[in-house]
Amino acid sequence: MLPPKRPMTELARAARGMPRVRDQDVIRGLQDNQFRLVYQPKLHVRRGVVDSAEALVRWDHPDHGLLLPDRFIEASETSGTIGAITLWTMEQALRDQQWMRAQGRDLRLFVNLSAQLLTDEQMVIALCAIGRHAGADLGIEVTERSVIHDPDLAFSNIRRLREAGLKIAIDDYGSGLSSLTYLKQIDADELKIDKSFVTSLGTSHRDPLIVRSTIDLAHALGMEVTAEGVETPAAHALLTVMGCDIVQGYLVGRPMRADALIQHLASFDPASIAVPNDGRVLRDHSFWKRA
Ligand code: C2E
Ligand code: CA
Ligand code: CA
Q1: What residue owns the CA closest to ligand 1's atom 22?
Q2: Residue nearest to atom 35 of ligand 1 (CA)
Q3: Which partner for 105 in 11, 100, 195, 277 could form a disulfide, CB atoms 3.0-4.6 Å apart?
Q4: What is the pTM of this model?
């Protein structure tokens, strides 16, 4: 079991160069439209199309400039304002999805859910209401940490979210203490293999074996598999041979604003990210296909 997350002290926050995020700043930031979403495309390998994207939050802070999530999400989880950020994120993703559709691009959009919110009754009710919105095609990324404190409640809330039409992805799989017991019980649509395994595919002997067996395991449990942090054609080729369904990473596209994503996809050719056929990866195909 993972140790409970301890709130970060002011000293630790200062040492990591993190600004002090006050509750009223977050609330004012949401009211004043200082938050925005960027989207990172996900390529469905077999279909050869980008048909989903992950929403990642950014904060254009009036004093601190552009803040990435690692500068404020943890503090918001501690102070409790993460709920307000998450609801704004879901609603904004829904608005952006409708806008993208009007531009001719139909993408399922995934939003990250902090661990503590999965067992928050009011949040689950609000998320279900958004999921039932006409035309909504949204998903939620949860980590295994979400189920540790109250697994039964977490599993039953996941079922409620799915019944409301939301897809569920297990995020950062492998980065914590991945438990087979939880994996078997989480009613999820997608498993996302943590990027730490993907970036070391070419250098580690063990990680490719772990990735391959994780893909097989997830398929056996009825889930599709996304590999995060795919940066090279070689990693993409290897993951394809291993049967990975979806790839996400700088190779397909960096996180970008909705309008930039539409432009990016208009000129994006999945064939352009294929590995150069010089045998480096192809040489290993039979090995990865071995039963
Ligand atoms: P995550 O969910 O694992 O998101 C993926 C992170 O990896 C993103 O960082 C993304 O920019 C980065 N990334 C994507 N492709 C690549 C790649 O090919 N190589 C490498 N090295 N990195 C890549 P970002 O946007 O800074 O987000 C960091 C984390 O913040 C996210 O990790 C997620 O846990 C959290 N987060 C982001 N938005 C939200 C949100 O709306 N709510 C909550 N609760 N958490 C969020
Ligand atoms: Ca995520
Ligand atoms: Ca992740």
Answers
A1: 229
A2: 69
A3: 100
A4: 0.91
Does 52 contact ligand 1 (Cβ within 6 A)?
Answer: no
Q: Quick check: is 264 in a domain?
A: yes
- What CATH number does residue 104 fall under? 3.20.20.450
- pLDDT tens digits, one per residue of 69-105: 999 999 999 999 999 999 999 999 999 999 999 999 9
Is any ligand 1 atom within 6 A of the Cβ of residue 40? yes
261: domain range? 40-56+82-288
- Three-point CA angle 246, 249, 252, nearest 5°: 75
Name beta bridge partners: 168. 140
Task: Identify whether the C-beta of residue 232 lies closer than 8 Å to the C-beta of residue 252.
Answer: no
Pocket of ligand 1 contains residue 66 by CB under 6 Å: no
Q: Ligand 1 centre and the CA of 278: distance in Å?
A: 33
Burial-class residue 155 by CB neighbours within 10 Å (0-12, 13-18, 19+): middle
* Widest pairwise Cα distance in the chain: 58
Count the neighbouring beta carbons within 10 Å of the beta carbon of residue 256.
17
Alpha carbon of 83 to ligand 1 centroid (Å):
18
- CB of 215 within 8 A of CB of 225? yes
Question: How far apart, in whole angstroms, are the C-alpha atoms of residue 173 and residue 176?
Answer: 7
Atom of ligand 1 minimally distant from the CA of 117? 44
56 lines ligand 1 (CB under 6 A): yes
Please check whether residue 1 lies inside any domain of the structure: no
Spatial separation of the C-alpha atoms in residues 99 and 223, rounded to whole Å: 29
Using one digit for the tens of pLDDT, what is the confidence trace for 148-199? 889 999 999 999 999 999 999 999 999 877 788 889 899 999 999 999 999 9
Ligand 2 geometric centre to CA of 54 (Å) = 7
